[in-house]
């Protein structure tokens, strides 16, 4: 998809620059910024750090991005561009399959860039790739009998559900020790935690299983809001 990046590939720094310093395509700036986020987290991304990584200057970056917030928005939208949904195939899906496909594809994309999800907290993605993704999902919902207010809320709920789970992927590797958690659950006092002990063999629930289960709950819940015909 990456609607924004196609145009960016042909855009390079303009104006005066240091002698011998090559122009910087916007696409390269964005992918390098994403590399910094992937490697060191969102807090590590600054105009100065990015300029150093590119062997360029902050002045060059500011010709393209008014501030760090704008840069971060472009990085986030680049990741949304990795949510690859073939329009012709997606348009033929039932609404529930479409919702499931969008949510899983978004989760996979954010899973490949685990430090990006925290950058989305408190923001509404409005880059071209995010808008295309929203448009396609809303079109399937509206065309399947969901009233506009419900379709809008359904997509927002799906997106925030995905974000909530994706943020959990951003923690340090090995942060949660399932073996230790299982031992703790099985060792609880049965007089105080009888219910927890009853389900202890199923705890902790793997994150991927939680995601799939929760997604099905949302989709099943949406069925009651659909207007047939």
From TrEMBL:
> Record's superkingdom?
Bacteria
Stretches assigned to the HTH tetR-type domain: 23-83
Task: Name the Pfam families for this protein.
Answer: TetR_C_1, TetR_N
DNA-binding region, residues: 46-65
GO:BP terms for this protein? negative regulation of DNA-templated transcription; response to antibiotic
Keywords in UniProt for this one? DNA-binding, Repressor, Transcription, Transcription regulation
Molecular function (GO) terms for this protein are: DNA-binding transcription factor activity; transcription cis-regulatory region binding
Q: Which PROSITE patterns match?
A: HTH_TETR_2
Coiled-coil region(s) at which residues? none
Where is region (Disordered) located? Answer: 1-20
Q: What is this protein called?
A: AcrR family transcriptional regulator
What organism does this protein naturally occur in?
Kutzneria buriramensis
């Amino acid at each position: 998809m990456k609607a924004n990046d196609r145009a960016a590939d042909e855009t390079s720094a303009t104006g005066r620059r240091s002698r011998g310093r090559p122009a910087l395509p916007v696409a390269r700036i964005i992918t390098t910024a994403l590399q910094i986020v992937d490697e060191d987290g969102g807090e590590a991304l600054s105009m100065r750090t990015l300029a150093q990584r590119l062997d360029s200057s902050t002045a060059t970056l500011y010709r393209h991005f008014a501030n760090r917030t704008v840069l971060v928005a472009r990085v986030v939208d680049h990741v949304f561009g990795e949510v690859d949904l073939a329009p012709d195939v997606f348009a033929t899906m039932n609404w529930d399959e479409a919702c499931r496909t969008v949510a899983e594809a978004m989760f996979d994309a954010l899973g490949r860039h685990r430090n990006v999800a925290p950058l989305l907290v408190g923001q509404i993605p409005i880059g071209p790739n995010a808008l295309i993704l929203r448009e396609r999902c809303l079109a399937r919902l509206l065309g399947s009998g969901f009233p506009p207010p419900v379709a809008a809320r359904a997509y927002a709920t799906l997106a925030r559900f995905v974000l909530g789970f994706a943020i959990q992927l951003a923690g340090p590797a090995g942060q949660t020790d399932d073996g230790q958690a299982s031992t703790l659950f099985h060792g609880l006092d049965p007089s105080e935690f009888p219910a927890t002990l009853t389900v202890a063999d199923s705890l902790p629930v793997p994150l991927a299983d939680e995601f799939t289960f929760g997604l099905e709950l949302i989709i099943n819940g949406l069925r009651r809001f659909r207007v047939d015909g």
